[in-house]
Amino acid sequence: MAAIRDEIYYSEIDTSRLANHSEVFKGLLELPTGLVDEEGGNDANPVKLVDLSADEFRSLLFIFCQRPWPVDPAYLSFMAGASDPTNQNPIAFKRYLDIAKLSNRFCMSEIEAWAQTQVLQTLNSSYTGWLTHNELLDVLSYFKICSSTQLLGLMKRSFIAYAQIFWKVEIARSKVLYFYLHWHADIVRGFGAG
To answer: Using CA atoms, how far apart are residues 166 and 2, in angstroms rounded to an integer?
Structure first.
């Protein structure tokens, strides 16, 4: 029985692009090919990459798998970086962060430097009110492996901004609850007085 190919995500890629940017991939691609039944020997038995999701790896491949023609406007916009305000959104931020993490893991220093710049620009902008707690924790986990002092400073600022937004929302909720309870108590007392 033949393996079913996902036409959206399955594609042949020019492996030299990966090898040119990563000694890790270069080493993997230089290994002698084995039997068809071994991992990576055929479509039914693909290479398994541990400790990363398919979406994370797709983010990394996104920058390598674009063809020269026809040019995808979304790709060009994304590659323009976070200095373009349209790329300061949760989807682009997640992709930049995934690329930074995986390029660190696969020793792609030039790609990591570019992706880290995009993460820093996004965090440095005043447009990051949409960052979630989990996204900030993802940045923190990336910081642990890259040790960027600039990223640490922006992380502190982002966590403080996030906490301020969170607490303002919580304070507002508690005030609404406070007024509701007092209003409700006044009504209940009013019924009891009659």
So the answer is: 51
Rounded CA-CA distance 93/170 in Å is 26
Report yes or no: 158 and 130 within 8 Å, Cβ to Cβ.
no
Instruction: Looking at 9-132, list the stretches that DSSP marks H as alpha helix, in order from N- to C-terminal side.
Output: 15-21, 23-30, 54-62, 73-80, 90-105, 109-124
Taking a C-beta distance cutoff of 8 angstroms, is the pair 52, 102 a contact? yes
3-state class (DSSP) for residue 45: strand
Q: What is the pLDDT of residues 48-76, one digit of tens each?
A: 778 888 889 888 888 887 766 677 888 88
pTM of the model: 0.69
User: Are 151 and 145 contacting, i.e. CB atoms less than 8 angstroms apart?
Assistant: no
**What is the mean predicted confidence (pLDDT) over 129-143?**
78
Is 96:115 a contact under the CB 8 Å cutoff? yes
Per-position DSSP letters for 100-115, written without gaps between them: HHHHHHTT-HHHHHHH
Determine the Cα–Cα distance for residues 60 and 56; give it in Å rounded to an integer: 7
Amino acid 101: pLDDT: 94
pLDDT mean over 140-163:
72
- Which among 138, 29, 122, 126 has a CA at the least distance from the CA of 84? 122
